[in-house]
Amino acid sequence: MSAHKKPTGRMEPLAIPANNSLAGPHWLCLKFPDNKADIEGLIVEYFIKHFDNFIRIERNHEDSFDFTVWHKNGQLYLELMELIYHDSNANLSPYIEENASVYPDKFAEQCIECIISKSNKYTSHSNTPIVLLTYVTHWRFILPELVKNIITRRLSSEITNFKSVYHLHIFKPGSSQLDRLYPCDDNILSKIHDEEFSNKAYTMVNPSSFNVLKYK
Fold first, then answer.
1. pLDDT tens digits for 66-83?
2. N or C: which end of the chain has fewer CB within 10 A?
């Protein structure tokens, strides 16, 4: 498989050491590989840590699904997709380092359009379930809870060819959070009431621009 160069950004969570540590707060730069195959391999490594029933996973050819996963109850196809926020300036790369004013409703709709578009590429008559795993590689694209809730609610009324849709967020080296965006249990959907905030922008601030003023 040829190495396909892929643009990535930076993820820099803040590390706060224990009180008895001489080191002060510092940024942990999460380095992503610079080619698509290695990025996807890294994302899958984090993904499988959240399950205990996976037996084997193999990468497929480029003209097929990204991965095939064998688990205790059978097998599934795993597709990966990065979620990217595009602001109003289409001439700029989305991976820029400038602070971003993000409208949750707009970001959620961008994500949903990408998910549905990818779903439409596959037939609903496949005998093997297809799972979509979404992820981000840049601090501007991190999905806050509000955006994930909007995606979850709106996807619940869509018909997709995916058995399930997950979102993986690597928040520090070796650790990640996995959320299931689709399908969602009715009792969870009934607790999502974030639409009133969907048109109120929030600001994503470049983490490297922060300075620690006091540490004790």
1. 999 999 889 999 999 999
2. C
Q: Is residue 142 part of a domain?
A: yes
Can you list the residues of the chain whose pLDDT is less than 50? 1-2, 215
Q: Residue 170: CB partners within 8 Å, gap ≥ 6?
A: 11, 30, 43, 46, 135, 176
Domains: count for the chain: 1
Residue 96 placed within a domain: yes
pLDDT of residue 198: 67
Q: Phi-psi region for residue 74, left (φ > 0), alpha (ψ -120 to 50) or beta?
A: left
> Closest Cα to residue 168, out of 198, 148, 140?
148
How does 84-122 read in b/e, with b if 16+ C-beta sit within 10 Å?
bbebeeeeeebeeeeebebbbbbbbebbbebbeebbeeb
* Structure confidence at residue 1 (pLDDT): 47
Domain containing 129 equals: 14-206
Identify the pLDDT of residue 213. Answer: 53
pLDDT value of residue 81: 97
Specify if 77 maps to a domain.
Answer: yes
* φ, ψ dihedrals at 48, nearest 5°: -70, -15
